[in-house]
Amino acid sequence: MRDVSIIGIGQTDVGERWERSLRDLAVDAVVAAMKDSHAERVDALYVGNMLSGELTAQEHLGTLIADWSGLGGAEAYKVEAADASGAAAVRLAYLGVASGIHDFVIACGVEKTTDADAETTNAAWSYGTDAEYEGNQGITMPSMAGLLMRRYMHEFSVAHEDLAPFAVIAHANGANNPHAMFRSPISAAVYAKAGMVADPVGMFDAAPLCDGAAAVLLCPTEVANRFASRPVRIRASAAASDRLAIHSRNDPLFLRAAHLSAERAYMQAGVAPHELDLFELHDAFSILAALSLEACGFAGRGKAAELAKQGVFDLQGKTPICTMGGLKARGHPIAASGVYQIVEVVQQLRGEAGANQIEAHLGMAQSLGGTGATAITHILEA
Known about the structure:
CATH topology of the largest domain: Peroxisomal Thiolase, Chain A, domain 1
Number of domains: 2
CATH architecture of the largest domain: 3-Layer(aba) Sandwich
Mean pLDDT: 97
Oligomer: single chain
CATH class of the largest domain: Alpha Beta
Largest sheet: 9 strands, mixed
Structural class: alpha/beta
Order of helices and strands: EHEHHEHEHHHHEEEHEHEHHHHEE
CATH superfamily of the largest domain: Thiolase/Chalcone synthase
Radius of gyration: 19 Å
Number of strands: 11
Strand content: 15-25%
Low-confidence stretches: none
């Protein structure tokens, strides 16, 4: 297997992008990644997307984006793994280059959710659950998060306000991200007063569904310096799955897929959690942020909120999370989020994070599909 590096990144502003279609957003990100790398050749394109068929009546997405990006002739596919679709595209791109099958591969994540009404979009988002046993019974992603949060609060004697730091951290960091949907910090008091989305999940516990696209261009590390002044090496790429339905899991409060993919990534990279300089986690809901930190070894069971309150996960803390706002403040364009996470780690490792810049050499990104049934973890090195 060959070493693989990221030589180009691209991203669009996140939000309600009425003026740009699904293909426009994807093309914008792909072209930006190519320009960033100065590479002219692309062997393959993997497009992570969850809901293009349901919300925009467009499938055959890989070929569409390749066509409109000027990559006609390249191998091109759509990749689907619910919310982790973008991260899955990055992993497939990594495997394509590492195996020697391809030399230059683009992974793009794109989603367009705001052209449909909120009810339709949330119903479609629930397709990432078990249809027969969860989705068809009326469960939604917010209500599923509500069940997890309620059980977590009961099991570990955690109050709702104890989870406020996750939202506060995300919004504080998102305020300095020019691509973020929400660029205003919030306080714990504001968090506590917010209305409920799916009790006990409040408005500031849930990341907003929106539109956006991000892309990365990968190539063998041995030639990366020819195309980028600051290539970023992929030290590890790992994935794992769990039971799809939450009620089928041995412990609904332990994200087994997140744990397994992180452990595999640590082993591949030869590092431990305490050696990482930042962690871009999947905070689609505050409860998932807490459970991810605990599953990946950054906090003991039921202790993530306490550590967050102590400042451990702040921008200047021991292990900064959501350094550019996370899903909560940057926005959650479902399948695109996993690629945005990779882009944001690259920005930190290249010293391009602006006001949010930290001293970073190793960074990890983990994307979750659905309620954590899929987990894809990447560790990147400057």
